[in-house]
Write a structure and sequence with these properties.
The complex is a heterotrimer of chains A (418), B (214) and C (357). Chain A has 418 residues and is mainly alpha-helical. Chain A has 21 helices and seven strands. Chain A has helices at residues 3-13, 16-24, 30-34, 36-41, 53-63, 67-72, 82-94, 101-105, 112-126, 131-142, 151-165, 184-188, 192-204, 220-224, 227-244, 255-269, 280-289, 320-329, 359-376, 386-398, 408-414, and strands at 178-180, 208-210, 248-251, 276-279, 304-307, 380-383, 405-407. In chain A, helix 1 (3-13) runs antiparallel to helix 9 (112-126) and helix 11 crosses helix 13 (192-204). The longest helix of chain A is centred in the middle third of the chain and has 18 residues, at 227-244. Chain A is globular, with a radius of gyration of 22 Å. Chain B has a single domain, classed as Fumarate Reductase Cytochrome B subunit (Up-down Bundle), CATH 1.20.950. Chain B has helices at 3-8, 10-32, 46-56, 66-88, 90-101, 110-133, 135-140, 143-161, 168-184, 192-209. Chain B starts with a helix and ends in a 5-residue tail after the last helix. Chain C has a domain at 150-307: Fumarate Reductase Cytochrome B subunit, CATH 1.20.950. In chain C, 63% of the residues lie in helices and 2% in strands. Chain C is elongated and about 80 Å long. The chains are: A mainly alpha (418), B mainly alpha (214), C mainly alpha (357). At the A-B interface, helix 2, helix 3, helix 8 and helix 16 of A face helix 2, helix 4, helix 7 and helix 10 of B.
Chain lengths: 418, 214, 357
């Protein structure tokens, strides 16, 4: 590992916004209260802004305007060293899900999650990345999916689903309007979503396909802070979409996949797409609006609540659509406290769930979510992110709770009037 | 040249120049780092987001814990108190008229002045004692935080010492501490008084493009 | 925590720094007033106002005219209206204030200071025997901590300014001379009067927050009978031992007395006659010297006197060892509650991350 490579990356990564953020922070500590890792453990090291300490030090020592004058008087922070980076590797990767809740209580409006992302890039430069993420990245690059799902496996699962719902699904169909990508978690654990999509799209009369060259939506490069990997993975989707000449690429129920493809993707590959990215919730809401899909009059009577996936809602801007969809199929939809943009993270986003070392902390931090859930007392929990769903199921098990976790697309399909 | 003449003459010119030029240098320096253009397709206006962000963070949201409430109340007590004193206290208006702007405006009555000072003092003390009595703030505070708090406190305290306005030395002492404060400003976290607008703006724009400003 | 970081001063450093800064301003004020005020010119008045001053100078001629003509005037800001300037109760008050009150009050504070020093030399720092266990026990809640430090800050500011007003004429005036002392005294009084009302608000909140644990509990006497602070061992007690409870109730009675009398002195128009102010002043000064004398012991025991005590008031939690040694019964109770998360404490199981003392 090399501290100097990390320092260099920090320096290069500090643009006007990062500098304004680091200069505006008055160390008030409000962000601690917004962080589920702090709330559940009370451990001060999990204070969000503390995770930025290496970056702050580098900024104040090497880059801040007027730091030259301060340096003459020895008033700049110490140089960041290897020991510090090793300690912060754990803080940056294990105790931050990039959920961005801290920003909303920050009186300065500092995008701490964004700076953690930038800090992770410095960790990558120093060669300090958790094993779990390194492995997932290797599989994503070599096999095509962080969970090691091969194209043949995908084809098999899709075929099974097609048979299950009795609708043929054509892979690699050139000229389809929509190209669906899926998160690894969906393909392996929640594959019913493929059948659900087939039924919904059939009713709506949509022409769609799945590419066997780019079926994976997740982007481990974005999570670990490796721009090269992130670019490669986005490029794969762009190439496949161009090859199949689709008009839309549908981002699935996966939080960071949406951010990675829609918001960061064009900047990573350096050009605008010649297709449009649409999130599945946006698409479903649009189809309902246009009257192209109809749901049963009889509503789901279970007491349900909605867990907002951070990257889709708070940091993705898809806030109202999941609520519209839930109200369409549920007669007993109750919001949690702070629902919507202020909802609490599942605890496993931002690569934390792929990082085995963080498991104990991730389970512990679920206490914050549990508090929110207990106040509502739902009979089922609906979400729209495969990773959230998996993390929530695991934690719910660990805490000995009984609470099924449902995917929103599947729920809509269940109440489809076809 | 008396002590008062020094602090109201050359030292005042020096301090206010350092303050203005230093702060400008720092702001221009930050802006000059630049940002890469974002070529993703915006869902809504970044500019509107940046404007919304300015106002949104005046009140934190996402649940009010003890921590949030305490800082909200103490923070506003201090800041509103300080600005009230700075802009509407009679001696300040007189000083600004004679040394900076050349005209005067409405001033607070004496009792309002005292009450505002008490609120500002209470707010500042409440904010600073959190730094020594909250584990989170103990952990994240650095020397700059404490120096800035103490300088501000001393500026206010010396102002309070000079309340009777009958001793040149006390007035000069207040001037001196304020001048130290002004010269410290561009080098320190006191700059948050300016940079908060950039910080809120950048975040507001970032989220504004995404169609949500949380 | 790896290496200690140079730029993050510990609480001890900060306290020292804060005291030094405060002290330096006062010394500076003394120096400035001493050297510059002596040379300053009389203000040239224009239309009754001094240029550059927003208050202006009130002419005293009205007052003297009334006095000469035997018309009633307001003495020392009281609204009653009197015709005499010098009255015998005033002279009695003056002799009490400059005599026994100053003498015995000053002596009391000096004796208290000497007691603390001797106690430290004899006992040394009371350490945790056998070191820490590393388990955090929550001791003071957030509200308990902030109100403590709020009132502590105000107490220190008021005590310093108050001591200047009361004893400055004996200690500082001879050094810096009358004219400079006049500026010094004015400064002290202005700060004292401005911050006083805040102290009253803080005191009332503080008394409310701390009342619950300071009422008499069965067993409080055990602590005294086993020697209290002078005991060789550690007599058991509840959250507060009888010494601490004494401090609370002293603050209750003397604090309220000082607040009530202070209100009259700060807002003399609340009083009817000047004699009430004289009485209020004696109560105010008397309560103040008692509180300051006892506070020295409190501050000593809370900081350098007892290892591990201060962190309870800063971080909010204490080490299990400290809790058991100093407040045995309370520790049993607090630990039986077994709160999983101690806010601010580094998670257990990571002893290398124990907060440095």
């Amino acid at each position: 590992m090399s501290a100097s490579a990390a320092i260099e990356t920090f320096v290069n990564n500090i643009d006007a916004s990062a500098a304004a953020y680091l200069d505006a922070c008055v160390h008030c500590g409000q962000c601690a209260q917004a962080c589920h890792f702090y709330e559940a453990t009370g451990d001060v090291r999990y204070t969000p802004v503390w995770k930025l300490e290496p970056m702050r030090r580098v900024y104040k020592r090497h880059k801040a305007p007027l730091s030259g004058i301060k340096k003459m008087f020895g008033l700049v922070p110490d140089e960041v060293d290897e020991d510090m980076l090793k300690e912060w590797e754990v803080l940056l990767y294990d105790s931050c899900t990039l959920c961005g809740r801290c920003t909303i209580v920050c009186p300065m409006g500092i995008d701490i999650a964004g700076l953690v992302r930038k800090s992770r890039e410095a960790m990558v430069a120093a060669g300090l990345v958790p094993e779990g993420l390194v492995g997932a990245a290797e599989r994503a690059i070599e096999i095509g999916s962080p969970l090691g799902i091969k194209p043949e496996t995908l084809a098999k699962i899709v075929a099974e689903q097609a048979e299950e719902v009795g609708i043929p699904i054509e892979l690699d169909k050139v000229g389809a309007d929509y190209m669906i990508i899926l998160s690894a978690m969906e393909i392996l654990n929640f594959y019913e979503v493929i059948g659900a999509l087939a039924r919904i799209f059939k009713q709506a009369g949509i022409s769609w396909t799945i590419s066997t060259e780019a079926y994976e939506a997740t982007n481990i490069g974005v999570q670990m802070g490796n721009k090269d990997i992130a670019r490669t993975l986005v490029q794969r989707i762009v190439d496949a979409a161009e090859k199949l000449q689709v008009k839309y690429v549908v981002s699935p129920e996966c939080g960071h996949a949406y951010s990675a493809l829609n918001w960061e993707g064009p900047n990573l590959v350096g050009k605008s797409y010649n297709f449009q990215v649409i999130h599945i919730l946006e698409l479903l809401d649009q189809l309902v609006h246009e009257g192209r899909i109809k749901t049963k009059a009889e509503l789901d009577q279970r007491r349900v609540t909605f867990h907002d996936p951070c990257q889709i809602v708070r940091r993705g801007g898809v806030v109202q659509q999941p609520r519209n969809l839930l109200n369409l199929v549920s007669g007993n939809f109750i919001e949690m406290e702070n629902a919507g943009v202020a909802n609490i993270c599942c605890g496993g986003g931002g690569g934390v769930s792929a990082n085995a070392r963080a498991e104990e902390l991730r389970i512990k931090s679920f206490a914050a979510k549990k508090k929110q859930l207990d106040a509502v007392g739902p009979e089922a929990l609906v979400t729209a992110c495969g990773n959230c769903r998996n993390v929530l199921e695991e934690a719910i098990d660990e805490y000995g709770m009984v609470l099924p976790v449902l995917g929103l697309t599947e729920l809509v399909a269940e109440y489809l009037d076809d | 040249m008396t002590f008062l003449e020094i602090t109201e003459g050359p030292l005042w010119v020096l301090a206010s120049s350092v303050f203005v030029l230093g702060a400008l240098w720092r702001i221009v320096g930050i802006i000059r780092f630049g940002r890469k253009p974002d070529i993703s397709i915006p869902r809504a206006s970044a500019l509107m987001g940046a404007i919304k962000g300015q106002f949104l963070h005046f009140v934190p949201h996402g649940g009010f814990s003890f921590r949030t409430l305490y800082h909200l109340v103490a923070g506003y007590m201090f800041h509103l108190g300080l600005f009230g004193l700075l802009i509407y206290a009679a001696p300040h208006v007189l000083f600004l008229k004679e040394n900076v702007v050349g005209f005067d405006w409405v001033t607070m009555p004496r009792w309002g002045f005292i009450l505002t000072a008490e609120i500002a003092f209470a707010g500042l003390i409440l904010l600073w004692i959190r730094r020594i009595s909250d584990p989170v703030m103990i952990k994240i505070s650095d020397a700059d935080d404490h120096i800035a708090s103490w300088l501000t406190f001393l500026a206010m305290l010396t102002g309070c010492l000079a309340l009777e306005e009958s001793h040149d030395s006390l007035r000069a002492l207040h001037m001196l501490v304020v001048e130290i404060w002004l010269m410290y400003f561009p080098f320190s976290r006191l700059m948050h008084a300016v940079t908060f607008m950039f910080s809120r703006g950048y975040t507001g724009a970032f989220f504004g493009r995404r169609g949500v400003v949380p | 925590m790896g290496k200690p970081m140079k730029e993050r001063p510990t609480f001890k450093h900060l306290t020292v720094m804060a005291c030094l800064m405060l002290l330096s301003v006062w010394v500076f004020a003394a120096g400035m007033t001493g050297s510059f005020d002596l040379q300053s010119q009389a203000y040239a008045q224009t239309g009754g106002n001094v240029p550059g001053k927003s208050l202006g100078n009130q002419s005293d001629s009205d007052f003297w005219r009334k006095l000469r003509r035997g018309q009633p005037f307001n003495l020392s800001g009281t609204p009653g209206g009197v015709q005499v300037l010098i009255q015998s109760p005033g002279e009695e008050w003056r002799s009490l204030r400059n005599g026994p009150l100053s003498y015995w009050g000053g002596l009391m504070i000096l004796v208290s200071l000497a007691f603390v020093v001797v106690f430290f030399l004899v006992h040394g720092r009371i350490k945790m025997t056998g070191g820490r266990t590393g388990r955090a026990v929550p001791r003071f809640s957030q509200p308990e901590r902030w109100i403590h430090w709020f009132i502590a800050s105000l107490f220190i500011l008021l005590a310093i300014t108050g001591l200047f007003v009361m004893f400055g004429r004996y200690v500082i005036l001879p050094i810096i001379g009358q004219q400079a002392w006049s500026a010094f005294a004015s400064a002290s009084l202005q700060a004292h009067n401005l911050l006083g009302p805040l102290f009253i608000v803080a005191l009332i909140i503080m008394l409310g927050v701390y009342l619950k644990d300071n009422i008499w509990q069965k067993g409080d006497l055990t602590w005294v009978l086993q020697g209290g602070f002078f005991s060789k061992g550690h007599p058991p007690s509840w959250k507060y031992n009888l010494g601490e409870k004494f401090w609370y109730w002293l603050l209750f009675f003397a604090g309220l007395a000082i607040s009530g009398s202070g209100l009259l002195l700060d807002f003399p128009w609340l009083a009817e006659r000047v004699q009430q102010l004289q009485l209020a002043h004696l109560i105010h000064g008397g309560s103040a010297v008692i509180l300051i004398a006892v506070s020295l012991v409190h501050i000593y025991l809370g900081t350098i006197g007892v290892e591990g005590a201060l962190e309870g008031m800063t971080q909010g939690y204490v080490d299990e060892k400290w809790a058991k040694e100093h407040h045995g019964w309370w520790a049993e109770e607090a630990m039986a509650e077994g709160e999983d998360v101690v806010e601010g404490a580094v998670q257990t199981g990571q002893p290398d991350n124990m907060p440095a003392e």
